[in-house]
Every structure is written in structure tokens, then in C-alpha cells.
């Protein structure tokens, strides 16, 4: 069996999942967001790279997604599944794990 | 990758989430609210800074939000995600974590 | 940031929440209710001070509330969020935590 | 604040709750029900004193109650909230905690 | 308060509950069912004595019951509430705890 | 009380339950299925002996069953209730515990 | 009882289940996906071999499946049931355990 060769452009999230490139930690950026060490649910900033088609409802429709490719998002650091691709950190999240669009 | 620069005005909560500026503790303000130390679920006062578009229902509509920007709200201290922005404390909450509008 | 000044009349509960003034303990009032020390879920008596607009249903309607301002209610002592206001004890409850109207 | 004076007739259960007067233990009544000590969920006998208006459904209707005042009922000893009123034991139960009508 | 006198014929299960007379253990009946000691969820055989009117659906109808008085049923030994009546063992079960009709 | 005499043909599963005859373990059958010892959820092969009428939906219809008598099925070894009948091993499963039809 | 002989082509997943051939681990493939050892929920790559007919909704319809035979998929390593068939590793997953299509 040949090894599967993956690249960022081939990742298509299913349902309401979102593929996010993790932003560098910026704990003390002037005027920027500060994520307190003792936060109950530590938030993280990232940029949306790919967006699923939306959750399928009982009557066969798709729920529209509220984020789009390019959005900067704030999400819980403990949510989703981490993936490393070509040396960069990515995370696959459900849209409900996105707290806010921040840019 | 450039660091993401955030400011309060760029934070757009998703779904039924609310962005709240945490009010200073006012444990013994005369005539004001007193939050007992031994309270089971310690409440906290804050001011609403941004409000999400509302939760998406199964049939694709938005549930209206009961709070608006500028409302003073009482919420559980143990709910939501803390965020520090330009030296001030904020919290991202779901509307269900808001107990009451208090001003 | 100025301290938020709160008074009882400004507290507007959200959804199906109810703002209740806790009645004095009356463990042995003649003919009155007696709350056994070994009760599994200790009930408490209070008076309704403010009532939320009702829970929002999926189709955007409000479920009517079964209690009104002035009702004496019995509720579980371990439910809700305690708040002290101008020296008096209050509690914010969901209507489902109200066991019965008792006067 | 005046003490709240309660009597049995003033107790109006909310929703699908039921106010039950606990029957005396009758562990070995001839021909009567015997509640085994090692029962997983110990049942108890009582008499219905007041019945709530029924659970409110999503479309604003009341679900009819299957028990009425005067029914003897069997319920789980570990369900509900105990209340003592004028020296007698009562319990506030949800209808789902009622196992059977027994007389 | 007079003791409540109960007999099998007076037991009317509520909702989807079923009143079952527990059959004697028959661990090694030839050709009969054998209940392994190491079974994850030990099944038990009994005979249906009384059947509730069925679970009430959201729109006020009763779901029909799949068992009737006289059916021999197989149920999980760890489900329901045990009751002893006139020296015999009974159990109050929800229909969902009935695994199969066996005679 | 006479002992209940059971035979395979009398077992009628309720709802979406399925009565399955457990197949002999075949850990290393050439070309056959191999169930790894360290599997998280150990699968098991069996043959469907009896099928329930289907789960009752809220509006009183039966959901059709996807397996039929005679199907070879793969199911989780930790699901359902084991029953021994005339020296053979059977298991009562919910259809959701069936992973796949394998023959 | 004859041993059940299984082959890949006979495996028909039920409902929303998917039969996936596990891809070889490729921890450091150049340009390929890298699965961090300390990932919270370790993802795994595989190829879809068979797809169930879709989940049955309450009104008797099938929800369409978002993956098809031949898709390369990313799924949580801790989801589903492992099966070994003719020396190869397979896994039976629910579609919700599929994070993304990756090729």
C-alpha cells in the first residue's frame, strides 16, 4: 500500500468541521489578546483554512456555516484534533468550538 | 506568519455567544449587589460589549437574543472563557449563562 | 470603570429564570412547614420578586411562566445562584427548580 | 419579614409534580405489600394530596396527569423532596417517579 | 392513618411500566434457558401481571404496548423496582427493559 | 409456579432488538476475520435467529429493520445480553449494536 | 456449526457506518501529514472500502453519506471497532468519527 500524500489543499472537512491553522502564541502582544495562564478554558487564535459544508439536519438540509476561509477565530485550546502538515500546526474543530471571529 | 492583532471592536461572537467586559469586584458597595463567598455558584457582574447573531434552529432561523450591547448582566463566575484585551478582563459566554439583566 | 449600582427593582431575570427573596428559616413554626434536617434535597421557602419572560421554544415562542410576582414558593435549597442585595438574601432559580406554590 | 404560614391546602405543585402524603411503613402487613430491605430501588406507598397541572409541551399544551387526588401510589423511596407539615410526612414527586397506582 | 392494604389486582402501572411476577430461577432446566453466571447483564424470566396504558407522546397520544398480560418475558435482572406481595416476588419495569417475549 | 420452558423458536425480541446465535470463535481462520486481542471494542460474529418488529417512532410507526433472519452479523462483544439455550450461546442485541452484515 | 468465512467484499456496514482500510503509519512522510505524539485525540488516515446506506431518520428516510468508496479519510484513532481481515487492518467507524476527506 502506497503512503497517502497529504497537502493543505486536499483537506476537506466533513459536516460542521473547520480546518484551522494555529496562530503563533502571542501571550503579550501589545494591544493584542492576552490569554491568562489560569484561564478555565484556555482560548487560542487561528486562521480558517477550510470549512465543511455544514451540519446535516433531520430533514436533509445543510445548516449554513458562520465562519469562512480567511477568518481569524478564537477557539478553546482543548477542543478538536491537532494535525501537523508540512511543519505547521493545524486543528480540526467543530463550529461550536469556535467562540468568536476576531478579525 | 504575522501575529494576529486584536482589538475589542473586532470581536464578533458566534451563535448565542456574548462578549462581556468584567466589572470590578464590588463586594461591599453600599446598596449594591453582594456576592457571598460561600455561594454555590458565584455570580459576577459585567457589561455586554458584543452579542452574537443568535443560535441557529433546526429550520435555519436565528433565535433572538435577550441581551443587547450596553446591558449590565449577572452571570456565573465559573461559566465561559476568559480573555484579556489591552489590560482589561473580558469573558465569552453563552446566553444561557446569563442569569439576569441588572441595569 | 464605575462600579455598577444595583437595586432589587433593576433585576430582570432572563428566559425561565425567577428572582426569589429567601424567607427566613422557620424550622419549627407551629402548623408551618418543617424542613427535615436529613432531607435528601432540602427545600426552602421564598417569595417571587421578579419573573423572566419564559423559555424561548424552537419556533420562537415564549413558554408561559407558572409563577408570578408575590407567589410564595418552595424550591430546592441546592438549586440556583445566591445573591445578597442591600442586606437581604435572594436566589436566581430556573422555574423547573420551583417545586410548588405554597401561598 | 413575616414568617410564611403554610398548610396542606395551600400547596399547589407546579408542572407534572405531585404532592403525596407518605403512608406509614407497613413492612409486614398480612396480604399487604412487602418492601424488601435489599431492594435496589426501595418503593414507598403514599396518598396523593395535590396534583400539578401537567407538564407543558413545546407547543404550549399541558400533558394530562395519570394520577388524581386520593390515589394510593407506589413510588421510589429515593425520589423527590421530603416536606414535613403539621407533624406529617409529605413528599413532592414528579409523575415519572410514580411507579403504579395501588388503590 | 390506616395502613394501605394492597393486592395484586389493585396494582395499575403508569405509563409504559409493566408489573411482572418473577419466575423461579431455573438455572439448568433441560432444554430451558440458561442464564450464565458471568453474563454482563443477567437476564431474568417473569410473567406479565399488569400493563400500563403506554407512554404519553408529546402530542398527547399513547404509544401502544408490545407486551400483554400473561406474556412470559425476559428482562434484565438489574432493571426495575422489586416488590413483594403476599409472599411472591414482583418487579415493576419499563417496557424498554423487556428484552424479548419468550412464551 | 411451573418452570417456564423455553426454546429458540419462542423467543420474540421486542422493538429493535435482535436475537443472535453466537458463532464459534475463529481467531485465525485463513482468509477469515481476525479479531485482535487488543482491540478497543472486540467484535464478534453471529447469525441472526429472530428480529424484533422495529423501534416505535413518536408518531406510532415502526422503523424498518436492516437485518433479517439468517444474516451473519458483526457486533461488539461487550453489547447486549447473553442467553444460553439448549447448550448454545445466544445474545440479545439492539440493532444499533450491529456493526455490519458480513455474509 | 461451520465457521463463517469472511472476505472484504462481503462486509456491508449498517446505518451510517463506514468500513475503512487503515493506512500505514507515516509519521514523518515529507510534506505529508504528521500526527503529533502528544495529540489529544490522535488522528489516523485510511481509505474507505464500504459505506452504509445512511442513518435512518425519524420519518423513515436515509441521511445521505458524505464519504464514498475510495476516499482517503482522517479519523480519530480512538474511534470505532478494529477488524483484521486477510492480514490487513480495517476499522468500522460511524461517519461522525470521520474528521475530513484528505484525498
TrEMBL record, chains A, B, C, D, E, F, G:
GO cellular component: cytoplasm
Keywords: Chaperone, Cytoplasm
This protein's record includes keyword Cytoplasm: yes
Keyword Cytoplasm among record annotations: yes
GO MF, one example: metal ion binding
Pfam entry (one): Cpn10
PROSITE patterns: CHAPERONINS_CPN10
Compartment(s) of residence: Cytoplasm
Matches recorded under SUPFAM superfamilies: GroES-like (SSF50129)
Family of this protein: Belongs to the GroES chaperonin family.
Physiological role: Together with the chaperonin GroEL, plays an essential role in assisting protein folding. The GroEL-GroES system forms a nano-cage that allows encapsulation of the non-native substrate proteins and provides a physical environment optimized to promote and accelerate protein folding. GroES binds to the apical surface of the GroEL ring, thereby capping the opening of the GroEL channel.
HAMAP family registered for this protein in UniProt: CH10
Description of how the protein assembles with itself and partners: Heptamer of 7 subunits arranged in a ring. Interacts with the chaperonin GroEL.
Official protein name in the record: Co-chaperonin GroES
Species of origin: Thermosynechococcus sichuanensis E542
Amino acid at each position: 500500500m502506497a503512503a497517502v500524500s497529504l497537502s493543505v489543499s486536499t483537506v476537506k472537512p466533513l459536516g460542521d468541521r473547520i480546518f484551522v491553522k494555529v496562530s503563533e502564541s502571542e501571550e503579550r502582544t501589545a494591544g493584542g489578546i492576552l490569554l491568562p495562564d489560569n484561564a478555565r478554558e484556555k482560548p487560542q487564535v487561528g486562521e480558517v483554512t477550510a470549512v465543511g459544508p455544514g451540519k446535516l439536519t433531520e430533514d436533509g438540509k445543510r445548516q449554513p456555516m458562520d465562519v469562512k476561509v480567511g477568518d481569524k477565530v478564537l477557539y478553546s485550546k482543548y477542543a478538536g484534533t491537532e494535525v501537523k502538515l508540512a511543519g505547521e500546526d493545524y486543528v480540526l474543530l467543530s463550529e461550536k468550538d469556535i467562540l468568536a471571529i476576531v478579525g
